[in-house]
Amino acid sequence: MPRYIDLSHAIEEGMVTYKGLPAPIICDWMSFVKSHGKYAEGTEFSMQWISMHGNTGTYLDVPRHRYREGHDMCGLSLERVSSVEALCVNVTAAPNRDIGLSWFEHLNVAGKAVLIRTDWSHKFGTDAYFEEHPFLSREAAAWLRDEGAALVGIDSFNIDNVDGGERPVHSILLGAEIPIVEHLTNLAELPHDGFLFSAVPPKIKEVGTFPVRAHAIMD
Length: 219
Fold this sequence. Notes:
This protein has helices at about 80, 140-145, 170-175; strands spanning about 5, 25-30, 45-50, 60, 85-90, 100, 115, 135, 150-155, 180, 195-200, 210, 215-219. By secondary structure, the protein is mainly beta. It has one domain: 3-Layer(bba) Sandwich (Glucose Oxidase, domain 1), CATH 3.50.30.50. Strand 9, helix 3 (about 170-175) and strand 10 form a beta-alpha-beta unit. The longest helix is centred in the middle third of the chain and has 9 residues, at about 140-145. It is globular and about 65 Å long.
């Protein structure tokens, strides 16, 4: 039987994924008690109302997030995000925040989801999560693009350095229609290879980023 490993943060009311963005609001639209007047005796339901920014929890970016003419969630190829052969690259020993090309250039990444393990996810939910986070270098992003990676994910606050206004990694990867998954977690539970990765978002028009239930599948 396959083993499933959840790589997503739980979404709950009031959580802060990215400072400055609104936290999700989750409440009952119809509670179990209020449903009693609508259904037969002994039958009850609840329905929730959710107001949520697209950049909440563990989420996936598609080209529409960065480029006006880029495809939205409806244009996302399932082959890139569902049961994709994957690699987990452990960069926890990196001496600097900047994760460079040397961590990847010996790997065969063609057609694979490349997940970058920094263990920064241990800080999720604290102020430290937003400060001095590790990020992918421009050169590494270009190499992953050129070598044909299907998807790139990271368990850090952002795949780019957010100290300035440029976002070269988003620009390079999304410009090549390579989806990005940010705010992953539990990557320490993964082997280097020999597993599949899935992170499928809803099929929503005109949306460039949205939460996913990212997970790994191992035999």
